[in-house]
Design brief:
- The complex is a heterodimer of chains A (673) and B (98).
- Chain A has 15 helices and 22 strands.
- With 673 residues, chain A is α+β, with helices and mostly antiparallel strands.
- In chain A, a hairpin with a 2-residue loop joins strand 4 and strand 5.
- About 1% of the residues of chain A have low confidence.
- Chain B is mainly β.
- In chain B, 5% of the residues lie in helices and 24% in strands.
- In chain B, strands 1-2-3-4 form a four-stranded antiparallel beta sheet, with no helix packed on it.
- The longest helix of chain B has 5 residues.
- Chain B starts with 20 loop residues before the first strand and ends in a 5-residue tail after the last helix.
- Classes of the chains: A alpha+beta (673), B mainly beta (98).
- Chains A and B meet through helix 4, strand 4, helix 6, strand 10 and strand 11 of A and strand 2, strand 3 and helix 1 of B.
């Protein structure tokens, strides 16, 4: 690694001036931006065009292996898995066997893919007959066959029960689509038309990327572009190593728990240690549970997805490339939950991945305490719909769709956690509800923040997105990728833990309405499907797991729903940061005014007393209450409780009372400044 | 050992561990440590075998895995077979771009 502290050193090391090096570095990112726009506009399925569940990358070919030099916004974890997958592909296919216009497709988790529905394409870029770069793009196809629409078979015990496994296979040869490969993919899927549209968009994206990269080579020449690529990688490496060098050498440990594997009832432990020595970090998953029978296993990708927490904590602002991965070695025991061996299944990779990010953040937060954060909701909260349409004009057409609800992120040392944002493992977007309702026979009755659900803290967590859904015609099947129903989400620095996930069935009122307020529905109208409940049968994050529930897991598989079947989903909340008694009372008041926090929780959790009619802070009463709560804690009393509504309203009348605790009816309340 | 022997579907171990080979008689050039071990890692290039000093984590060697290293845990049966003409037609045709 070069020092690169001056422009002269850059020129001496790479043979190009700093301005040219920086111009090409930006040009490489610009190549991926053109690819991104092509794919997002050309994709057919809502997964591509709206969720942005895809990746576009440029890799530099080298003797030791390939390294990703640029990537742009998309689904985060691809930025970490694509570099390794490019190496798997080149290693197995052989660079000497690639020709211009060749593209390889692969979806195999044992070759670095995330799961079977993801098709990953790799295409070398030649200059005067020599391959210099590799482009890659990847996207989640709506369906890849197997017994469950969408490919998430949460009950699968092997990959034969999940879908089509595609080893490295030629899908374009000299720019011509290979018919047999295209047909293999389309004819093993329930959604061939969407898949074909997405595949063509992926092909077009490669063509655009190749044209832009060739233009860069024409402008600056191949020697300069390759040199600037090396500069780009070294710069990211240098920044990461400098951040690591500020960490005290030593061994750090962290753990996370997943509720279950969807088949058995035992929780699954993830252990991660990090040993820091100078500018090098060795991460080790030893101590993690063995691969379970169910589909909660991954086969390679955690060795790179674990670096997401490192990037977020140590060098979050610099563009991602392989240089940032150079300082790390990752150990993963074969046969463990993070390095499963054939023929294990991995449909629930997302519920593992969404624990890997907070696990990694927890570990690196210990190394850099000022960057510690509360855990996010720790689940994909992703729901996959499939079926045969019965709506007029669409009879007999297969449909599919995916929605990922935003989570609450944990509080940080400087601000409240983000609300309604999917896991940092991917950061994909939520789809447009109206387009979902057009494409699949379902109506989303509501999406809300639920009052009192954010982990308490000096900086509280964000709010998760609840969902109320109902089929409109015929029947559909939904697979629910949801976790964090069993263990409240971890707080940081004496904050309050985040609430757990819940699923309910809902009884529709005689007038066709479902009464709700602040994201809460009366318990008399709810039937517990999964979650933690107290002895009275009310939701309680610190209650008993699966007490009186229909299922012993929140990972529901291919659940049939018909018109009139309504599901209410409440994803887990994140953990707070810092002591809630130190939160600015004005911020507590603002949350109450915005109906995010009840008056009762303001007092019980934050020690803030608000005047009921005006919602003004009673300073003297607040000081007194906070002193009382602090003294109680010093005598060994409990710390901040896990977030979540206590005394969940049972009736419509109780629900109205809940509303009265936050916004006094008929009173004049000033807007907080 | 052929890669063909690698496509097995044996039951996973109850207590999975990272297999480590202790290298006898070697000393770390950085710290003088004698606990030198060779084990599978995931590094920037993917699956590699690392030889490192366990006292200071100095990296003594990084190698591509051999067949007997069983790393990564899966390799295809045809891993070391020659490519067919169909798989490298574009290369053979010799078309170039740029």
């Amino acid at each position: 690694m070069s020092e690169m502290t001056t422009a002269r050193e850059v020129e001496e090391e790479f043979g190009i001036d700093l301005v040219t090096a920086e111009t090409i570095r930006s040009g490489l990112v610009e190549v991926t931006r053109h690819m991104h726009r092509t794919l997002s506009r050309g994709g057919f399925s809502n997964v591509v065009r709206e969720l942005f569940d895809f990746a576009v990358c440029v890799h530099l070919l080298g003797d030791e292996g390939t390294e990703m030099v640029s990537v742009t916004e998309g689904c985060t974890h691809f930025a970490f898995t694509q570099p390794h997958m490019a190496n798997f592909i080149v290693d197995e296919w052989g660079m000497d066997n690639f020709g211009p216009g060749d593209t390889i497709v692969c979806n195999d988790p044992w070759r670095g893919s995330i799961h079977l529905p993801d098709v990953n394409l790799f295409r070398p870029v030649f200059w005067e007959g020599e391959p210099l770069f590799m482009l890659s793009d990847a996207s989640h196809l709506l369906d890849i066959g197997g017994p469950v629409p969408g490919g998430f078979n949460n009950e699968a015990e092997d990959f034969f029960s999940e879908g089509l496994r595609i080893p490295p296979t030629l899908i374009t040869s000299a720019d011509k689509p290979v018919r047999s490969t295209i047909n293999l993919i389309l004819e093993n899927s329930r959604t061939p038309l969407q898949n074909l549209g997405d595949l063509r968009a992926l092909f077009g994206t490669m063509k655009v990327g190749e044209a832009r990269l060739l233009r860069l080579l024409q402008i600056f020449g191949p020697e300069a572009v390759v040199a600037a690529s090396r500069y780009t990688l070294d710069l990211a490496e240098r920044r990461m190593r400098r951040a690591i060098e500020r960490i005290e050498d030593g061994v750090y440990d962290a753990e996370e728990w997943v509720d279950d594997d969807g088949v058995g009832e035992d929780p699954v432990r993830l252990a991660l240690s990090g040993r820091v020595a100078g500018s090098h970090v060795e991460l080790d998953f030893s101590g993690s549970d063995a691969q379970p029978l169910g589909s909660l296993t991954t086969c390679w990708e955690e060795t790179v997805r674990v670096l997401i927490g490192a990037k977020m904590t140590l060098d979050p602002n610099h563009p991602m490339n392989s240089g940032a991965m150079r300082p790390f070695h990752v150990l993963a025991p074969p046969g463990s939950v993070v390095m499963g061996t054939p023929p294990t299944s991995n449909s629930q990779h997302a519920e593992l991945a969404t624990k890997i990010a907070p696990l990694s953040q927890l570990l690196f937060g210990q190394m850099v305490p000022e960057h510690a954060v509360g855990a996010d909701g720790g689940t994909s909260s992703g729901y996959v719909f499939g079926g045969i349409d019965q709506r007029p004009g669409r009879e007999g057409l297969p449909f599919g769709g995916v929605i990922c609800l935003g989570l609450g992120w944990g509080g940080t040392s400087s601000q409240d956690g983000i609300s309604f944002c999917p896991s940092p493992i991917w950061g994909i977007t939520s789809p447009t509800i109206e387009l979902m309702e057009r494409d699949i026979p379902v109506i989303f009755r509501s999406m809300n923040a639920q009052i009192d659900s954010a982990g308490a803290g000096r900086f509280r967590a964000g709010y998760a997105n609840t969902l109320l859904l109902e089929p409109t015609e015929g029947s559909l099947f939904v697979t629910m990728n949801l976790d964090s129903g069993r263990f409240p989400r971890r707080a940081a620095q004496s904050g309050g833990d985040g609430m757990t996930s819940y699923i309910f069935r809902v009884e529709i009122g005689e007038d066709g309405r479902i009464p709700q307020s602040q994201g809460v529905i009366p318990m008399d109208l709810l039937k517990p499907v999964a979650g933690c409940f107290d002895e009275a049968g009310l939701p309680d994050p610190e209650g008993e797991w699966a007490r009186g529930t229909e299922f012993h897991t929140t990972k529901l598989n291919n659940l049939p729903l018909g018109k009139g079947d309504v599901l209410f989903v409440v994803p887990a909340g994140g953990g707070g940061y810092g002591d809630p008694l130190e939160r600015d009372p004005v911020d507590v008041r603002l949350d109450v005014w915005n109906e995010k926090l009840s008056l009762a929780a303001a007092a019980d959790v934050y020690g803030v007393v608000l005047e009921r009619a005006s919602l003004e802070v009673d300073v003297d009463a607040t000081d007194e209450l906070r002193a009382t709560l602090a003294a109680r804690r010093e005598k060994g009393g409990p710390g901040p409780r896990a977030s979540g509504i206590r005394n969940w309203p049972r009736t419509v009348e109780d629900l109205a009372a809940l509303s009265l605790t936050t916004r006094p009816s008929g009173s004049s309340v000033a807007v907080p400044s | 050992m052929s890669w063909a022997a690698r496509y097995i579907q044996a039951a996973p171990p109850e207590n999975p561990e990272v297999p480590r080979e202790r290298i006898e008689g070697q000393t770390c050039e950085r710290c003088g440590g004698t606990d030198i071990q060779r084990y599978p890692v995931s590094c920037v290039y993917g699956a590699r075998m690392a030889t490192k000093c366990q006292a200071c984590l100095h990296i003594i060697a990084i190698e591509r895995p051999r067949a007997e290293d069983w790393w990564p845990p899966f390799r295809s049966t045809t891993y070391d077979w020659d490519a067919s003409l169909a798989e490298r037609a574009s290369r053979v045709l010799g078309k170039t771009k740029g």
